[in-house]
Give the backbone structure.
Amino acid sequence: MDVTIEPENSSLLRAGPRLMQILGVLTRHKFLGALLGKKHLPSPKQVRETLEELGLTFLKFGQVLAMRRDLLPAAYIDELELLHDNLPQMDFGTVRATVEAELGAPLMDLFSSFSETPLGAATIAQVHEATTHGGRHVAVKVQRPGLKAVISRDIAALTYLVALGEKIFPSLRALDLPVVVHEFANTLHRETDFTREARSIVLFRGALADVPDLWIPDVVAEYSTKTVLTMEYSAGERLDSYAKQHAEAMPRVINTLVKLMLQSIFEEGLFHADPHPGNIFVLPDGRLSLLDFGMTGDLDEPMRESLILLLEAVVKGDARAATEAYLEMAPASEEVNRAALLVDIKATLYEVSKSDLANVSIGDAFESLLHAGSRNGVHNPSEFFLLTRAFVLLESLVTALAPDHNYMQSFREEISRLTAKHFSLTQIKEKTTKFVRELERLINDAPGDTRRILRRIAEGNLGRLPSLEALGGSISRNLKRLASAIAFAALVVGGSMLLMTSMGGWHDIFGKTMLVSGIVGMLITGIGALRRDHSQR
């Protein structure tokens, strides 16, 4: 389902009736009093109740705003976090009609049983227990009908409200609310596309297949479409309910949660952005079952590497390294005040350094970084907000399940394991092979590309210059020298990184070998270049 705002769908004429309805609700909840000044701003409770009354899209928008502690005061954030998906259940006739229309057959031809009472109902969909004719026990997630029209209309109205608000209150422009609305529309698109969620489930099952004590229900593809998602049934108990009766099992549970979070992020670039108790069940055999992959994030390899550097810098209290890693994750614009950003991050990490490591909160540290970035002109990427939300929810969950458990110990152990794996001989071999292939392509292509460029220049107004071919050969030789120097420099950097991991054993031996080989190679390359230059004089 596409919720992108198109010009014809966001016209004032189309959004007008909804805008009038929204303005009526805002007036009733005293929002318009804000025109008289800050003293007349609506209370946090009034904001929450207003969003709940405005319905699905605005309720979800409030949940997204609850993640943006860099935009709103803490009191409003705390109230927005109380927003619940309290829409009424769909009647069974609507559920039946949706399933039959999507799957192309009568309900009883598709399933031998289908419970009329939902297992749960939320803003986007509700879930029903069912059994296929093949005897497979499944959970069927059915999307509410008409969401496309409702969301498109409300996003258009929200866009006009944001534009109006910025005109009335110019100070709002600093909050980048149009960007927030755009990212919100993209979030709704992800959550309402069950095909995407099905792909996410398949990816997570593959990424976390070797995590012990974890089970992720598989997708039943033949009974799934863009608005109906059928999965294996998870016959478990909510994690928070389970914890009350099995406190002794919580350390193992927490270790599993930390492992699945970090392993999916650093090995596959995926993460579950909504790890609250309602999405984590405990099966009768004690394994965890992870559910609801509608809100997930993905990080490309450069962003993952920057995240590793950021986490290490936060734990070590290195503000300069944290600033550089943060700006790699959230590219800086000309408006960014780097000096002020560094000062703010130093203050944040100073607070971290004063705390006992067992009490350090990665989520809180990331939220402080978001605050610092927003104050100093950084446009934070949406994935960073989702990632911060994921860490905040995970840490809150751990605190609720086992207040005395050393969460950071589990975190450090898993980071050490992933670091060791990242610097394993296999990984180094793969990265070196990739690097060598790129260098080989550069060396092979450079002479021909250089000559072609020079030939075009020679055939232009400059005329044909005899020295161009010689110049091309000179450039080609210099490119080869440069490629060799880069390769040897990579050995020096790689060896240094291995020696800095403090893992000992073959890592130190291999690191020293790489370091020495790189230095010797760079010296040979430099001496060779000097000799050639001297012979040509």
